[in-house]
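Input/output pair, single chain:
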Amino acid sequence: MAQRLAKDFLSLGQRGCLSTRALFALGDWEELQTFLIKVRAACRRFWNAELTATQCTALDHEHLRMHGLASMCLPRETLHDVLLPVFKRQAFTQDASGFLSAQAFVLPVLFYKHDHERMLKDLRHFPSLIAVSACPQTLSSLGSLPTPIRISALGQANLPVWDGTHTGTPLFNV
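Output:
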């Protein structure tokens, strides 16, 4: 599962509107930490390139910002590792996009322990959310999300051919 998440997260270098911007996680805290270590390693293998000095500086700056917001940040083993800040379940009452990052190579993790219903409710507070990918056991429960959201299996988020639109609006005149 870590390899499929790395593919969704980094296949476009986190550029573009279909790039993975957050991970919503359910489960035990210890399992999450173990999984994130696997995700970090999978990202390292998938990207397989060093980040530029500008990207490393941006990640350092974003790490400081996220550290003030997050419950914890998984330590980066090298300067070229992705940043994985973890937020223990928050009760979002408005636009929660402030937890997301404008920088590439940052994947905020919103951890809900076992509160599946709260997670589904909170997903509605991300107005920029246009696509969701999930592990097979979660796909069926996502049917209650707002209809314009595209739902795909984990590792398949960037598989469909782009049709030149953003949220249904054509970006190019042909």
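The first strand starts at residue 23 and ends at 25. The chain has one domain: 2-158.
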